[in-house]
Amino acid sequence: MPMLFQKLRKAIETLLITALLAMVGLTFADVIGRRFFSAPIYGAHDLTEHLMALIVFTGLPLLTVARGHLVVDLFDRYLMTDAMRWWRGVIAVLVSAVLLLIGYQFVLAALDAHLIREISQELLIPRSYFYGLISASCFISAIAALLPPPHSNNIVTKENT
Length: 161
Known about the structure:
It is a multi-pass membrane protein. One of its GO terms (biological process) is C4-dicarboxylate transport. It is found in: Cell inner membrane. This protein has five helices and no strands. With 161 residues, it is an all-alpha fold.
């Protein structure tokens, strides 16, 4: 099973790199076309918007599993002790609950977008699929937030202090 997760992670990382490269290339070409030829790329804004959503929300589960979110380590000396393990559990449950709530709201948004046939302004790309991607990403991240960290060597013990 871990081998399957490694292959899936590599595939997602490749997708993220490709999407980021496409976004950079598209933005570069759009700026060059706009500045030098007075001919911007039609739909560049829509494509950039969708690529950004793809990058952010496809990467969210990977970031959550790796515990790569931005943290303030002001109180780590106290909170990362064995005695405060319960606190880290409470925080993990709260993070998971927030991600579940966001995922649920995007399920509702996807259903509404499908119902009213919401599309992007220029290229007429249906929005419901991206709302579904965001929702699935949040649900997967909510599960990942409850998993134990990949390595727990940040725990401060009495020998380390």
